[in-house]
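Would you mind writing out the residues of a protein together with its fold in token form for me to study?
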Amino acid sequence: MPEYQFSKHYMVPEARSLLPKIRDWIDNLLKVRVEWRQLDRTIALMFQKSTDLGGEAVNRRIWVIAAHLELIEKFRSRQILIKDLERKLVDFPHLREGEEVFLCWEEGDSDINYWHSLNEGYAGRKPL
């Protein structure tokens, strides 16, 4: 039996069924990331002004970091790779004729219609 890099391999229907969740998780990650950046700027200004760094901004930042980690874990625990968060590009480990490859999806694709080898990346996408 070949040795694979991933322990989870998605069949196409299984990966497709996760797309609504993937879209939600990525949208939430992007929102959390925006808030994290805003809070970092707020806290940096507070620091420059020698303002007390406790309080709501710091507490909110901790909550945002925890939310970010929770969302990232949804992908990590399923071995789904976020290749480009801004483009909403993700890869699902998949076995194709015994070879470990990725099913590839990005926002704008109507469905999971492409795959590529582990080495090729997005540029090597091929139709299913």
Remarks:
- Residues 12-48 form the longest helix (37 residues).
